[in-house]
Specification:
elongated, mainly beta, Thiol Ester Dehydrase, Chain A, disordered C terminus, single chain
Amino acid sequence: MTLATPSTTPPSRPRETVFVEMVFPDQANHYGTLYGGNALGLLGKAAFVTATRFARCAVVMAASGHVDFHVPVKLGQMLELTGRIIRVGRSSMSVEVSGMAETLAGGERTPALRGCFEMVAVDGEGRPRAIDPDDGHPVLPT
């Protein structure tokens, strides 16, 4: 029996992250739709995960930009969140997160929400640190 040799390939640095969340009663408001505060939390989580996977270090949210709620996400629907790195600076990244509501039984999909977030890579002291630009993409000035 041969054992596999540990990989020396550096970790990937994806610019996009996709995950899903079901809207359950504890996340809904009295209208039977996703409560706005919970939606903001999900958008922020998606921005955090996307930025951390790209920077491969600790990140914090420095700012949230404009957030659009296009349609209500109903109780029982699935929300597919896609975070994308749209700008990389010396220590900061802009992350756009979009949410697509999907009715599981019928498969109908509707753009539901979108937001932009500024994330900053930080060191162990919580100070901004440079993001390694060696990912094959140009680094734009901050």
